[in-house]
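re the bet — no i am not wrong, look at it urself. input seq straight from the record:
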Amino acid sequence: MLIDLIFKRFFLILFLLTFLSGCVSLRPAPVALNLSDRQLAALIAQMALEQQKADSFFINGILDIKNWYGDAEVAVLAVGTRNPFRLKVEVAHSWGTPLLHILIDQDRMEVLSFSERTYYFGAFKPQWMGRFLGVELSPDIIWATLRGYPLILASDDGRIEGSNPITILDKDNRPLEQITVHPETLLPAEVVFPQSKLCLRFFEFQESDQMLFAKKIEIARMDKKPVLSLRYTEAIFNREVPSQIFSLQKPAGFKAVELNEPLLDSPR
């Protein structure tokens, strides 16, 4: 009887762990930091300085996409500049067949959908990224993901509180972001953006040309499993980017469609 009870409890615990791991990421609770207010402000200032070290990037990687034509692992090539904000992303099957080309040039967006044989164009809005990649992404979150380092939203008229996670508040005490760091290295591990209800997770930090970046980045909806996961295979920063890269040409036979609100509910 005792052995049967032990086995029943064991399998019940195993079932619960399996079930929970399928619903919510079981991440360990962050360790509180023993830092003064001055040290905390210095840490955030150092992060803000670090994020500004990259003005451009060229990256190759593997993108794991959830809830977009099912789950898919695809190849991604991305080129971007910070000022002005310009981005070109090419998504392809692992065997090379193109899926999406996305161009963002400040406030304008163009997309080539090869599966739909459609050229989309119009004003950039985060919800358009949701249509094509499964999650709404602002320029700040796009840059932080592809740069491999969080964007720090602290301002002179806001304030910082907490000891891990660290909360950055605006002048009206509204949370802009929550940053959890590794207690040993003080490198960012997770950044939550309450207003967009998204979090970014950073893994495997490396240093190149005195600049830090994570080789793996996850985007997740708050308290849920990742929606997008990017792993670099190659990353080059702060090289000159020719302006002609930021263009798309509509292939013959593709129809042209303007980006507008009804597209959000239309089938893909």
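see?? The first strand starts at residue 56 and ends at 65. told u. also Residues 30-260 form a domain with the outer membrane lipoprotein receptor (LolB), chain A fold (CATH 2.50.20.10). so pay up
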